[in-house]
Design brief:
Elements (H helix, E strand, L loop, with lengths): L2 H10 L4 H15 L8 E6 L5 H5 L4 E7 L2 H9 L5 E3 L12 E7 L10 H11 E12 L7 H5 L8 H10 L3 E8 L4 H13 L12 H19 L8 E7 L1
Length: 242
């Protein structure tokens, strides 16, 4: 990922509707499979600038791993200390080290040579019965200018990512799309980008009322993603049990 993208992420992760809404969805999905009041050992695989890693602390002890020194420096700036530099394709942890592995918008990246190997590593480091929650951008035809800056190599469908999870040894518990209610707006934005390459970045923070409304859309769809699943969206989310 371009260095300036980490700077932008660090600055907007606390306020941008997408980050706030997705963190809420993560909590809703994990709460479906994790017992309240229990302290879990979690690994955030590809922790980036640490916003989601920090939020996961409500579930227990979280270790963040990332290959980028820049990302880890920003995570440290948030006060995170359980940080490791390494590749998600060769996790530097013994077998059965964690109860939960999360990976948010990581396996799409061109720095991940083989997403199948990464998922197999998630399975290896999970304790029997442990949970993996993986999110990634959806649909290759939704590529936009933002994908250039964040080095997108691949996008997924629920069927494709679900099958890859199963081949890695997981029992597939959930495969759904998310960011569904705003899907039509995204189609318009991608069309505009095609003709106007200088259009605003995906990480531009809109005016406060718009920001709140867009975050609300992600909040309202979270129970549907958890229960019945959503048929289309900007992201793919899968949950598997080791």
């Amino acid at each position: 990922m371009d260095r300036e993208q980490y700077q932008i992420m660090y600055e907007v992760e606390g306020v941008h509707w997408w980050y706030r809404g997705m963190r809420y969805q993560n909590r809703v999905l994990l709460s479906e499979y994790l017992a309240p009041g229990r302290t879990y050992d979690l690994l955030d695989a590809g922790c980036g600038t640490g916003g989601s890693t920090q939020d996961l602390g409500r579930f227990g002890r979280v270790t963040g791993i990332d290959f980028s020194w820049d990302a880890l420096d920003y995570s440290k700036a948030r006060g995170l200390t359980r940080l490791v530099r390494g590749s998600i394709e060769q996790l530097p942890f013994p077998d059965h080290s964690f109860d939960v592995v999360t990976s948010f918008d990581v396996i799409y990246h061109r720095g991940v040579v083989d997403e199948r190997r990464a998922l197999a590593e998630f399975h290896r480091v999970l304790r029997p019965g442990g949970i993996a929650l993986v999110r990634s951008p959806a649909f290759d035809w939704l590529r936009g200018t933002h994908d250039v800056g964040i080095h997108t190599e691949r996008r997924f469908t629920t069927g494709g990512l679900g099958r890859t999870m199963t081949k890695a040894g997981f029992e597939l518990l959930k495969a759904t799309y998310s960011n569904t209610f705003l899907f039509p707006l995204a189609l318009v934005k991608r069309t505009v980008e095609h003709f106007l390459p200088g259009s605003p970045s995906d990480l531009s923070v809109p005016p406060a009322p718009v920001n709140r409304l867009m975050q609300m859309a992600l909040t309202l769809e979270a129970p549907l993603a958890r229960t019945v699943g959503l048929p289309v969206g900007l992201s793919v989310v899968v949950v598997g049990r080791a």
